[in-house]
């Protein structure tokens, strides 16, 4: 509950300085910005904000009316302090607004909702994300994407050189210091690689029907059993396309998932680490308007830069899975409505996450929106873990005991990782 | 010069006129009121007593439990008056306090009827104590507890509050009331009163022994060989506390003691009195922590 009175005192304090014309007056008066009285003149307490002590609790006894000094208009020792009714200004003043208690808010509900947002760091990682999205894990990327990766027609000319140049641009040439911070080289690398992939639009004209979107807010709601879950908030960079991503699994594979059981992890509950709230709105929003031409979410790019919170690869993969699932679910509910059903045309959303060196690839296929029960047809998730793009990219070489351990520049480049990245980008263009 | 300063300061103030009404009595305690002319109205009452609170205990006033480590302020052996109360404390490496849940039998709100089963996520060093601590997760909550000797990440531990007719086969790390354990088990994290939280046997490598169970109470031998009698519903953890070789470590140098925050003792030679030297004496009588109704109350 933000009380704007402290702010008004801070605005008021410079007014005294103008009238006094001397900072010593302020010190002599011992007025501080927070407005609490402090008569000590020691330097260690100067400017210190000591939090206000809680006022004495006055118990109300039913049937007894306390005699207050309200009628006398002044303090009388021995009489009780009068309590006046809460004054209502009558109009909305933004600087003096006290928000109501959680129970009084209009969106308050008795049933709690567990929200997965961009600050969530789940304990159980991919297993928890699979349970929440009712999916089965398949290690490795689907066959059609791997074929795309190996197909020589899909290569850029001088691909390896150009990728190495892109890495050197973001890691080595961007700074005069020892190393650029991760917050700088990670997005720079992703944008360079995307630009490189986009240079194939000469041979693949369908690439022109795509657009990148950043800082869009997603909302998707679903129930698993009796518990309400939501995915909310900004995810990362989204590549949208005009045509949907082709289905990665055939019907037999989809039907065979109905026999496999979901993995549980007793004693830990699947709601651990999710934000539990009673004030929520069951919203389903892809983040874009209904008439947006690039309506199909193609690939989600997540950048893990080690701040708020620092995610280990397992947790990063869980985050990718959950947001890919959220995008797919929001799209399904926009197309087919809120009724839980098995989709005849499964929705596929891809995701790439990186911390600047290691890449994680996820292809998520939403087969069903019937997530209430644990049985039945399940969704599919192909996960490719920990693909390094290069081993070291050092501005200055690592020398131990006069022996060069790691040379300066780029070393340990892996061409296969970029081939998979390119394949995921080109997936959908025939 | 001071008089000039004070007079120039007070010149900018204007005393409160008779314009205050009953509606402003409440607002007066919040802060100064600014009237139309823009000049300051002064507070009426001056407090002349200094605050008795120690102004360095704000870091431990947090009520909500969290597993995130909290920054600590060291006291250096000094109390709120600023005087040294305990000598030999000061300096040392910075430490962050991890809130440990000593009340093992704490149910999650809404799940009081289900048994508490938790999984150990990690066991790590705690700078604030000699024992290691373990992060356990169960249901939708995570908490820190004192780790027992052979606890590793991935173990599943159980906490129960029921006392059956037959004694439970105690696994290390599990937590049961004293009445449910067989006589002779090694226990740690002993509660004196049921529900209060563990206060005894928490240091590294320590363990108590459950000696006897006597109609509704249990007698435990502490690591100092003292015996105490507590109610049998007090919950204890089974096994020895972790970091068993703690007493065998060698400090090695004065600097390591300083890193631990131990300042050197006074170098002045003082003749030792009656307190020094080995004493061989019988154990004190058994202390009982059961609040039985007094004889006067019964009659």
From TrEMBL, chain A:
State the similarity comment: Belongs to the mitochondrion-specific ribosomal protein mL37 family.
Query: Per UniProt, which keywords does this protein have?
Result: Mitochondrion, Ribonucleoprotein, Ribosomal protein, Transit peptide
Q: Which GO terms describe its cellular component?
A: mitochondrion; ribonucleoprotein complex; ribosome
Q: GO MF annotations for this entry? A: structural constituent of ribosome
Its subcellular locations are: Mitochondrion
The organism's taxonomy opens as: Eukaryota, Metazoa, Chordata, Craniata, Vertebrata
Q: What is this protein called?
A: Large ribosomal subunit protein mL37
Any one biological process term the GO annotation gives: translation
Q: Which domain of life is it from?
A: Eukaryota
Automatic annotation (TrEMBL), chain B:
- Sequence ranges assigned to domain Large ribosomal subunit protein uL2 C-terminal in this UniProt record: 170-293
* Keyword field contains Transferase: no
Question: Matching InterPro entries, A to Z?
Answer: NA-bd_OB-fold (IPR012340), Rib_uL2_dom2 (IPR014722), Ribosomal_uL2 (IPR002171), Ribosomal_uL2_C (IPR022669), Ribosomal_uL2_RNA-bd_dom (IPR022666), Translation_prot_SH3-like_sf (IPR008991)
One GO cellular component term, please give it.
mitochondrial inner membrane
Looking at the record's lineage, which domain of life comes first? Eukaryota
Please state where this protein is localized.
Mitochondrion
The Gene Ontology terms for molecular function here are: RNA binding; structural constituent of ribosome
A Gene Ontology biological process noted in the UniProt record is:
mitochondrial translation
Q: What Gene3D superfamilies does this protein's entry cite?
A: 2.30.30.30, Nucleic acid-binding proteins
Q: Which SMART domains match?
A: Ribosomal_L2, Ribosomal_L2_C
Q: What is its main location?
A: mitochondrion
Family from the record: Belongs to the universal ribosomal protein uL2 family.
Official protein name in the record: Large ribosomal subunit protein uL2m
Q: Which organism is it from?
A: Triplophysa rosa
